[in-house]
Amino acid sequence: MSTASVQLPGWINYGVIPLINLVLAFFFSGLVVWAIGENPFEALQLLLVGALGRGEGIGFTLFYTTSFIFTGLSVAVAIHAGLFNIGSEGQAYLGGLGAALVALSLDRYVPWYVTMPFAVIGSALFGAACAAIPAWLQAKRGSHIVITTIMFNFITSSLMNYLLVHLLIVPGKMAPETRTFLPGGQLPKLDWLIALFGGKLGAAPLNFSFLIALVMCFLIWVLVWRTKLGYEMRTLGVSPSVAVYAGIPYARIVMIAMLISGGLAGMMALNPVMGASGRLQIEFVGGAGFVGIAVSLMGRNHPAGIVLSALLFGILYQGGAELSFDMPSITRDMIVVIQGLVILFAGALEYMLRPAIVRLYQQVGGGR
Amino acid sequence: MGLGSAIEPAIELVGIDKKFGAVHANKNINLTVAKGSIHGIIGENGAGKSTLMSILYGFYQADQGEIRVSGRPVAIRDSQAAIAAGIGMVHQHFMLVENFTVLENVMLGAEGGQLLAKGTSSVRKELKRLESDYGMEVDPDAVVEELPVGTQQRVEILKALYRGAEILILDEPTGVLTPPEADHLFKVLRVLRDQGKTIILITHKLREIMAITDTVSVMRRGEMVATRKTAETTVEELAELMVGRRVLLRVEKGDAAPGEVLMSVRHLTVKDSRGVVMVDDVSFDVRAGEIVGIAGVAGNGQSELLEAIAGIRKPTSGEIWIDGKPVAGFDPRRLRDLGLAHIPEDRHHMGLVLKFEENENAILGYHRDRRFGRGPMLDLDAVRKEAEEKIAKYDIRPPNARLRTANFSGGNQQKIVVAREIERDPKMLLIGQPTRGVDIGAIEFIHKRIIDMRDAGKAVLLVSVELDEVRSLSDRILVMFAGKMVGEKPGDASEQTLGLMMAGIAA
Ligand SMILES: Nc1ncnc2c1ncn2[C@@H]1O[C@H](COP(=O)(O)OP(=O)(O)OP(=O)(O)O)[C@@H](O)[C@H]1O
Ligand SMILES: [Mg+2]
Fold it and tell me: Is the pLDDT of residue A329 over 80?
């Protein structure tokens, strides 16, 4: 009952409410910018131009977007089954190992398009492996997935640092990273995509994994809303007791959902590792796993919403970098504050405005 | 209304109108409730009773119309405003914090100040006073989840009274109560009325209307179609006013022709999560073509027995045979494959995902069927077609398979579950509380379908807290007390005989 159960039409739910939240977030960010003595409108303009103004900026924006789509999907799949996977960060990190091993072993023998499918599978397998133990502990032992996945972020981080520093490092080099893959182990840049819109990609690392991310969006949509497995996941996610009644096997669904979630997080590594730097570097995930939580929440755990919110975060990342370059008083930390505000308003405070909007909608007579 | 103008109105609803999309839930409703009276509201499932009360309690806003309390027009924007106007509501699904004590629940949201201690002692005093005034003894320090349902409901009433409610709304309060608990509730309601409180009571049980109300109003398809003084009407008239046709208030069935044993339980023992024995060495058979009813006061192990047979709860020991196969420990999916259907006692806890669209619930448990999509895929067209057929056959309203299940009225939600399980054409059927919250017209329909199942040679096991329902449907009645089967009687056993057995007095 009350306003929470009122069914709003999709255009309000998925259009108006997020938009208002976003405007609020920018409004408060503007206040912050204004408070440190800069012109908020100028800052906004710099941010948008930086992110979307030129082909290169767009290329960077979509590069970040790609990573966020993967991690956002990863979080969303788990949420549909009622699981809060906080471990996408670590799963992506381990996924990088999978991708790198495939690239390192195949790059001198075959062209990239042969390597790619193996790399997709390799990264997904390693990501899934990282999720498997927390999943099993949740399914069989009831250990809370939030706790175990957080712990696994630390475990993978230590493991990867060890591997990179002691085993994968190129002998004689200082940097803890693998050798650079040959072209057969790299994903091609998407110059043609930007050229389609008359721009130039320049140095931007937008690469083929962007297309893989979009394909995954579609596949996840199919999985969640068009398959029996997705139906079982959603039932379990909403009501474990109904799932028992319906004969939906809890342990199995928890395992499957977490393995898929981990796999998607693992695939994120394709983008930075095989698409951008062409080698496995230390700490390459850089927080994208955690951003995925915000992306998924903001995108209502729906692939289409995830693409949009990943794009928004891509814009913030790229535009923010340009902004702090052009306005030195706006530091990297300020950008983080602004991102925080977006997460706060668009993700966490989702339900703050809803009751008021529902009431307005009913008064305006939308109820009939 | 013919009630004279001398009465003092507690509540007046004038021209209340409410639409949900295409559904016109309340059409220009006028209703006057006299101060110090018990006013019943009846009507078919989806007639708009709960909506009307939700408007009065501030959950929904009317599109049009006015609410007057004691003659003064009031705007009730939310439940705080309703409470301020002296209106309290006892919900069908209790809104209690289960692991809080009675005291903590009563003071929740009305703590009165920063320091709990001060509030606690004053609430304790006030509770004492309420208890002695209205004869509602409840231990203030008991934890709510450990109380029986009837007592939990009393806590809800106390909560409302503590907040100063003069007008109390009860939406289907007896649906979850055992007959003695219901009797107790009525005693409390009478005391409340005699002390000058006004009570609005929604129920589907006409017997209760006749027993306790002073006035009764009838709703049909969103309209208020009649108001009668209870003393001047009959059950038959009310039934006809509700449904718009004559209703058979008795079940008509021929003799059973029992065949082979399809369901067999041997020395079954079931413990609950705390290790308490709920079902204790129970054995019985159900044959093809018969309805076996289990009578018993709620909480004597019927629920656990049903859940064990349905594969939801693992038995501690004993055997269950279905269609000649030992199945103890099977999960619900395998049991369904063997032809066992199950209408669960609690539709919200088990039978339905309220967040899902209606059509998604129409396949729950059977979603793996090939009919609903080949291989791993779900064929939404087939699912929706299936749902629409059932909606038509069971007259589920509104007839919209895409509507969110939470937005169906309680009785229509029940029909969604019943339709799903019966239309499967199973071999064996487990039924818990088949008509909880269902209107008399639909009860007639559901009872007919259950008897059709029997006549088609299915084995039916029925659990209901409605002794009337057990008696009118069952061919044989097993009585359960404290986890044990204490006896078996033919379907026409008298209420007294069964009542004594249910109380553990006679065998
Ligand atoms: N939030 C909602 N959105 C859409 N339709 C709704 C909503 N709430 C109720 N309805 C519809 O309004 C009608 C009246 O529902 P209501 O719950 O008032 O019925 P009721 O008389 O209480 O029935 P029951 O006896 O089954 O409880 C129903 O058709 C129901 O489906
Ligand atoms: Mg109702």
Answer: yes
- For residue B351, the chain A residues in CB contact (below 8 A) are 242, 245
Strand order in the sheet with B167-171: B87-90, B167-171, B198-202, B38-43, B215-220, B223-229
Tell me if B412 CB under 6 Å of ligand 1: yes
Give me B487's structure tokens: 């006896």
Interatomic CA distance for residues B465 and B299, integer angstroms: 10
B342:A1 CB<8 A: no
For residue B406, give the nearest of A5, A245, A365 by CB distance: A5
CATH of domain B251-339+431-438+461-507: 3.40.50.300
Check CB contact of A104 with chain B, cutoff 8 Å.
no
Q: For domain B9-243, is the CATH number 3.40.50.300?
A: yes
Q: Where are the domains of chain B?
A: 9-243, 251-339+431-438+461-507, 346-425
* Nearest ligand by distance to the CA of B407: 1
Residues near B285 by beta carbon (within 8 Å), at least 6 away in sequence: B261, B263, B264, B265
The residue of B312, B343, B353, B374 whose CB has the most chain A CBs within 10 angstroms, and thus the best one to mutate to test that interface, is B353
CA of B293 from ligand 2 middle (Å) equals: 27
Q: Check CB contact of B327 with chain A, cutoff 8 Å.
A: no
* Nearest protein CA to atom 6 of ligand 1, as residue: B407
What are the Cα distances from residue B272, in Å, to B7, B351, B430, B462, B473?
Answer: 53, 20, 20, 21, 29
Residues A102-149 have pLDDT tens digits of: 999 999 999 999 999 999 999 999 999 999 999 999 999 989 999 999
**A328 lies within 8 A of chain B by CB:** no
- Rounded to the nearest angstrom, the distance between the alpha carbon of B59 and the centre of ligand 1 is 13
User: Hey, what's the torsion of the CAs at B400, B404, B405, B406, to 10 degrees?
Assistant: -130
Predicted local confidence at residue B7, as pLDDT? 74
Contact B487, B493 (CB under 8 A): no
- Domains of chain A, earliest start first: 63-312 (1.10.3470)
* Ligand 1 in reach of B51 Cβ (< 6 A): yes
A interface test, pick of B377, B413, B416 with most A CB neighbours within 10 Å: B377
φ and ψ of B154, to 5 deg: -60, -35
- In this prediction, residue B372 carries a pLDDT of 95
Cβ of residue A166 closer than 8 Å to a chain B Cβ: no
Name residue B489's beta-bridge partners. B477
Does B43 have pLDDT greater than 50? yes
3-state SS assignment for residue A199: coil
Residues B255, B291: Cα–Cα separation, whole Å: 11
Query: Can you say whether residue B29 is alpha, beta or left, with left for phi > 0 and alpha for psi between -120 and 50 degrees?
Result: beta
As given in the structure block, the two tokens for residue A345 are 């308003």
Nearest CA to ligand 1 atom 12: B25
The answer to whether residue B372 neighbours chain A at the CB level (below 8 Å) is yes
- Whether A260 has a pLDDT exceeding 60, the answer reads yes
CB A96 within 8 A of CB A273: yes
Q: Give the pair of three-digit tokens for residue B353.
A: 């995902």
Assess whether the C-beta atom of B60 lies below 6 angstroms from ligand 1.
Answer: no
> CA A58 to CA A204: how far, in whole Å?
8
Contact B14, B30 (CB under 8 A): yes
Cα B99–Cα B106–Cα B437 angle in degrees, nearest 5 = 75
> For ligand 2, a single-atom ion, which residues have Cβ within 5 Å?
B 50, 409-410
pLDDT digits (tens, 9 = 90+) for B435-492: 888 888 889 889 999 999 999 999 999 998 888 899 999 999 999 999 999 999 998 8
Predicted confidence band at A359 (pLDDT cuts at 50, 70, 90)? Answer: confident
Pair of tokens at residue A157: 């981080």
Q: What is the pLDDT of residue B442?
A: 87
